[in-house]
Amino acid sequence: MVRWISFLPRAGRSAGIVVIAVCAFLLTCLLGDRLLPKRELPWLVREKMAHLAAHGNDYNALFIGSSRMQDNIIPAVFDRDVDGQGFTIRSFNAGISGMYPPQDAYLLDQILHLKLTGIRWVFIELQTLQTTLPRANRQTLQQLYWHDWPRFSLLCERFVATQSRRHWRDRVAEVGERWPDFCDHVLLFVRRFTSLGRGSVLLNRWVFREPITAEDWSLLGDYGDGWTPAGTHRGLDPQETAALESDLEVRRKKPPVREAGDRVTQKALDLMIAKIQRAGATPILIVPPTARGTYFAPDPAQARNLVILNFCDPPKYPELYLTKYRVDPSHLNAAGAEIFSHLLAQRFIEAVGRK
Q1: pLDDT, tens digit (0-9, with 9 covering 90-100), for 137-172
Q2: CB-based burial of residue 184 (10 Å sphere; 0-12 exposed, 13-18 middle, 19+ buried)?
Q3: Of 222, 225, 219, which is closest to residue 61 (Cα–Cα)?
Q4: Using the 8-state DSSP alphabet, how is residue 332 labeled?
Q5: For residue 345, what are the CA distances in angstroms to 5, 92, 321, 326, 334?
Q6: d(C-alpha 293, C-alpha 296), whole Å
Q7: 4, 16, 79, 168: most buried by Cβ count inside 10 Å?
């Protein structure tokens, strides 16, 4: 290779050396990823993945999404209701607080890699793909672990995708507003790809004999099925209750409006659906009962053969929009989660029966 480069012009030799250096760097990163210990995951993600690795074949249904799935769906209630309708089902709540697309697709990939043989249904929360990172934990493990190439490529697409029928100056300004977040995503991707910091884990284990942290199954909730109730035991004070009632009253008078979402959000959803179907399971799409002004759901023409259970409908589900069953505009308390789990089981039976 070096002899071949010596025959090239000076500019060509320089370019060739750069190409070789880049290739060597990429190969080193890939080799290091193989040799270093398994990637560290945030606590809750790690515990749920460890539980599924050990007991995943005990379940035939999974719930994947944000805290609106984790806190609002009680598998024990859902399973009992569905079993009473002639189905045999055992579900696990794999929802993670703060998890938005495309992070949920990473979690789905890790679960599918376990090759669980009994999974028949995968319930996915419908959410738009997020490019904005939380200010509090932008460079933490909670954001780092899912920045692999498939997720980063979607973020790049979303970064350059702008609203159609806008003047080019407005579209440039729209991209410019996303630039700080995109830079953070680039840094997270580079850190993950180069395995920056993972060598210290190997050093601590080999040299300092640091023990591997034991699993903490208490993170899976009192029932061990992944459900954890939202809120605190103290409840809401009068001021918080009044603010929540005001938000819910607005939504009862003016129900949320469906948004089709951008093409990258739809692409991310399509990829997840295709993976679930290839694994032999059926995707069930859920719109949780939030009190926001809009919610994401695919265009009906695109979702003709999919099951979509939409609970973001105050006139149809008034009980889910009562203050006594809420902790905030997005989350139900334990009593509200039980009601929602009953309604979800009912709608699921109706939808599966029609299929």
Answers
A1: 777 888 889 999 999 999 999 888 766 556 666 666
A2: middle
A3: 225
A4: B
A5: 67, 14, 19, 20, 17
A6: 11
A7: 79
Q: How confident is the model at residue 218 (pLDDT cuts 50, 70, 90)?
A: low
Q: Let me know: does 74 contact 107? Beta carbons within 8 Å.
A: no
> Model confidence at 84, in pLDDT bands (50, 70, 90)?
confident
Which amino acid, one-letter code, is at 103?
Q
Q: Is 84 helix (H, G, I), strand (E, B) or coil?
A: coil
CA distances from 277 to 111, 246, 268, 284, 337 (A): 14, 42, 15, 11, 28
Q: What is the percent of the chain with per-residue pLDDT over 90, rounded to a whole number? A: 50
Q: How many residues does the chain have?
A: 355
Instruction: Give the C-alpha separation, 59 to 101, whole Å.
Output: 24
Instruction: Please name which of 92, 29, 87, 83 lies closest in space to residue 65, comparing C-alpha atoms.
Output: 92
Q: Is the pLDDT of residue 112 over 90?
A: yes
Q: Are 68 and 290 in contact (CB under 8 A)?
A: yes
Per-residue tokens: 147 = 């920045």
Average pLDDT (278-293) is 94
Domain boundaries, the chain: 1-35, 41-354
| Cα Rg of the chain, angstroms | 23
Find the DSSP H helices in 194-262. Answer: 198-206, 238-253
41-354 maps to CATH 3.40.50.300: no
76-109 per-residue burial string, b: 16 or more CB within 10 A, e: under 16: bbbbebbeeeebebbbbbbbbbebbbbbbbbbbb
Residue 49's identity, in one-letter code, is M
Residue 187 has pLDDT above 70, yes or no: yes
Tokens 């179907």, located at residue: 277
| DSSP 3-state of 154 | helix
With CA atoms as reference, report the closest residue to 195 among 6, 13, 26. Answer: 26
Looking at residue 204, its pLDDT comes to 53
List Cβ neighbours of 335 (8 Å cut-off, separation of 6 or more): 324, 325
pLDDT of amino acid 238: 82
Q: What's the CA gap between 43 and 45, in Å, rounded? A: 6
